[in-house]
Amino acid sequence: MAFDPSGAGARVLVASNRGPVSYTLGDGGPPGPDGLPPLTARRGGGGLVSGLSAIGPDADAVWVCAALGEGDREAVRRARGRYLDPADTGGQRVRMLDIAPETFTAAYNDIANSVLWFVHHMLYQTPLDPVFDDRFRDRWAAYERYNAAFADALAQEAAEGAFVLVQDYHLVLVPGMLRELRPDLRIGHFSHTPWAPPDYFRLLPDDVAAQVLRGILGGNRAAFLTRRWADAFAECCERVLGATVRRVPEQETDGAAEPDAEVQGAEAVREAIREAVRGSEAAAAAAGGRLIVEFEGRTTRIGVHGLGADAEFLRQRSRQPDVDERLAALRAQIGAGRKTIVRVDRTELSKNIVRGLLAFRRLLEQHPQWHGRVVHIAFAYPSRQDLAVYREYTEEVRRVAEEINATFGTPDWEPVALHVKDDFARSLAAYRLADVALVNPIRDGMNLVAKEVPVVSEAGCALVLSREAGACAELGEDALVVNPYDVEATARALHEALVMPEGERAERNRRLATAATALPPRDWFLAQLRALDAG
Ligand code: G6P
Fold it and tell me: I want to staple 422 with a disulfide (CB 3.0 to 4.6 A). Which of 117, 247, 381, 524 is the partner?
């Protein structure tokens, strides 16, 4: 039954595949009332979790999800079809949907992670992949059922006129389905990934491509992390659906945003874009016009909200004793007087970890002066290991790291310190220690590591950053920007970063930290609610 404290339903609803809690099997405590071993709950991190806390405990809010954090199989089995215990969620009302495991697997692994993720990150090796056949059709039908389950639950939970924030590529059909069920709701969809350009997006079967776009256009707003992804989405709507996209100069709008001074000259436009990615829609309009999509009599506004790092949380958390302990252990492992190049990623195909290692190898080949004087700390945390291609990639990361160590290592110097066990406290310790951060994804919606390191770094850290990361729109001026495929150029940038004078490094780091924290999670979340309210 739906949660309904006042008989009126929830005012704010969040829907995402993964909910804001993770569970691990308790270590030997007394069994729970059901006689099963106890589960230990941990509240998830990330922008949405801290963002939602901005609306305060009194707002009637509910979070609808179909999966929980890592280590969750047992917890998912027990929680399916229920509300989680508020004691586990920090008081948050979280409803787990009851989705059949085979439907979930087809929707999450086979469509969301193997098709939609691949399209938006342009990961296919097209001579062989993708192949859209009858198996794909079955899986797509499961993806539709999974989206429909979300739409039904949201329709049940929502108060009249409530705000519904639907997240990511797992749930692109939800806005359209929900609009059918509840025309009164204000529905927004947020893409945390890049959006594919039309030529690549059209790899999808025509009807599926159209369904994806129609699904999102069922909402009042569609929002993205940078203007680049918003533009790509608008272009797909034009090319695939034949929708009308209005790129409205600010002066012609209906006053929904502050009128902006006229922007003249390249620098002024750049400044406007910088403002835009900090969440100012008025400046976005000045930089390139508001984006409004009109299709089949409906209007959907396109928004840009560049999620920033949570400075307050990071500064406080990174000074905790468990982080200090790990910092000491890392220092001991690296050895005194050595510089560090740090990367922290999930072993995700889009993160480009292997080319990062090859660039480090090239640095050692070309600049023997770094032998014994630099360590590449590479944290590559397992991700989506149900998929063979992810497991193979993880193995390749390991193989290349070992090969570098075998080629260049000496009894007292291990060039690559590879860690694969996820440990947030150790990631923060590495951020504190970093002389150089390497963030070189093939394509990335934003990349929060690029934003977190400058906030936590102690000595000031030089950032080598892929131009294909959304974060580059905000951090590009003070980072060393690279083409992620160009290993040679990445090696050069690593060298440049290592020899950067300390004063310059500290100054750039200071500016990076300012830009990185311009729109912290709570403001990012509220900006979306306000925008949904405004139009
Ligand atoms: C990354 C992406 C998000 C996505 C999430 C899903 O964090 O940036 O867009 O929602 O992965 O991760 P999962 O582990 O649930 O597949």
Answer: 381
Biggest CA pair distance of the chain: 71
With a 6 A CB cut-off, is 120 part of the ligand 1 pocket?
A: no
Cβ(482)–Cβ(464) under 8 Å?
yes
Q: Round to whole Å and give the CA distance between 251 and 254.
A: 8
Q: What are phi and psi of 160, to 5 degrees?
A: -55, 125
Evaluate: CB of 168 within 6 angstroms of ligand 1.
Answer: yes
Amino acid residing at 128: L
Give the ipTM of the model, two decimals please. 0.97
Instruction: Determine the residue type at 323.
Output: V
Question: How many whole angstroms separate alpha carbon 305 and alpha carbon 294?
Answer: 21
Q: Which of 18, 348, 452 to mutate to test the pocket of ligand 1 (most atoms within 8 A of CB)?
A: 18
Alpha carbons 231 and 532: distance in angstroms, whole number: 19
Whether residue 18 has its Cβ less than 6 Å from ligand 1: yes
Nearest atom (ligand 1) to Cα of 170:
10
Look at ligand 1, atom 7, and give the residue with the nearest C-alpha: 192
C-beta neighbour count of 465 within 10 angstroms: 27
Q: How far apart are CA 179 and CA 295, in angstroms?
A: 14
The residue to mutate among 17, 385, 452, having the most atoms of ligand 1 within 8 angstroms of its beta carbon, is 17
pTM here is 0.91
Per residue in 436-464, pLDDT (tens digit) is 999 999 999 999 999 999 999 998 999 99
Average pLDDT over residues 339-359: 97
Task: Confirm if 61 and 526 have CB atoms less than 8 A apart.
Answer: no
Tell me the per-residue pLDDT of 194-244, one tens digit each, with 9 for 90 and over: 999 999 999 999 999 999 999 999 999 999 999 999 999 999 999 999 999
Alpha-carbon distance of 427 to 433, in angstroms, equals 10
